[in-house]
Write a structure and sequence with these properties.
257 residues, alpha/beta, Rossmann fold, 10 helices, 45% helix, globular
Length: 257
């Protein structure tokens, strides 16, 4: 997809996201959007496109680090539930509790029993959340084997992208089919009527981003809320003084550009 066409469509969708934002605030909706998928599937870029024109106080991105020793002793889902939205919030999980069904299982960070128990209980926990009024959207970005390799190689060679490449990523790269099996087991157990998975092919990043945003807008019913027209008041001249004089004693950043 050409950049010009992509940016034109993205702008239209981002305007609608602003309307959705006002609706969520006004009606105190609680929304969770989960982004999962293979490494280098384009989750970060999609989340950036989704959130770059809206308020971070409404669209809150949650990307939890590895659990601390204290968190490891808690219930597995506890630190995720702490991030659930209040009324008027959309929480976007850049990876989520489904780590247990993916990287933790494949890389041996949890036991087979822990993995089995998660797949058994996860649909029940999600049912409780949905029954409590949370709108739960689960998205899986699926990138092809060849495209994933191209993206990994680009990260290796580009200093602006190398921060995206961790030792865990390179280790995971060689386990394509292990992740495929883990993915299919996860779908089998957790693709439920109350919390279904929706898949997006992401070999074309631009189309994937547009399709994700369009799906979110379609999934959450909303209407445009008329906003009162804003009119700037006149600035008062009372107490007028040379407010730039005091700044002349301060040290400014060197103007190199």
């Amino acid at each position: 997809m050409k950049r010009k066409d992509y940016e034109k469509e993205l702008q239209k969708l981002q305007v609608e996201l602003c309307h959705l934002q006002e609706w969520v605030k006004a009606h105190k909706l609680k929304v969770i959007i989960i982004f999962e998928g293979r490494d280098a599937a384009g989750k970060g870029g999609t989340i950036k496109a989704l959130t770059e024109k809206v308020s971070p106080r409404v669209f809150r991105v949650c990307a939890l680090p590895a659990p601390s020793d204290r968190q490891k002793s808690q219930l597995f889902l506890q630190r995720y539930i702490e991030q659930y939205p209040a009324g008027g919030e959309i929480v976007i999980f850049d990876r989520s509790w489904y780590n247990r069904a993916g990287v933790e299982y494949v890389m041996g960070f949890c036991s087979p029993a822990d993995h089995e128990r998660f797949l058994e209980l996860c649909p029940l926990v999600e049912k409780f959340a949905v029954d409590a009024g949370i709108i739960l959207i689960k998205l899986w970005l699926e990138v092809g084997m060849e495209e994933q390799e191209l993206r990994f190689r680009a990260r290796i060679e580009d200093p602006l992208r190398q921060w995206k490449l961790s030792p865990m990523d390179t280790e995971s790269f060689g386990r394509w089919y292990d992740y495929s099996r883990a993915r299919d087991m996860m779908f089998e157990a957790t693709d439920t009527k109350h919390a279904p998975w929706r898949l997006i092919r992401s070999d074309d990043k631009r189309r994937a981003r547009l399709n994700v945003i369009a799906h979110i807008l379609k999934t959450i019913p909303y209407k445009t809320i008329a906003r009162a027209k804003v009119k700037l008041p006149k600035r008062s001249s009372k107490g007028r003084y040379d407010d730039q004089a005091s700044l002349r004693r301060m040290k400014f950043v060197e103007e190199r550009y």
